[in-house]
Amino acid sequence: MNETRRGFWCECWTQDLTDQEQPAALRASFDAYSAPQADRWVAVTLRTISPALDSDASDAAWAWLSQGRIATRRALLRSESCTVTVTQDCTRITWTIRPVLFLPLAHHQESELPACAYNFKPHATVSRLS
Question: What is the pTM (predicted TM-score) of this model?
């Protein structure tokens, strides 16, 4: 890949609503190369967690899956940012999808690695028995 490529940067954040001092925490991120791939990432996650959600949060999740996803896909096709939010008890879960340009990076298998790459020595793992 030698050129910039359009895509979407997807993130999942959680926030404890009882502690306004604490910032939201990034839980996952994903680089998608198409609008369908981006909204599918959110859809798969919502379908996976929906059985564990309370009834209000589950209803919100399924409302987005059945109706909101269409509007999200249309917005993404217009290169607009989108947000999907579900609140479970005192936790807000927010997925954001933003259009981005992915920059090309050097592929490490097609060229020689820099000399400093060979200075790294992995640490041996220590196992402890309890």
Answer: 0.74
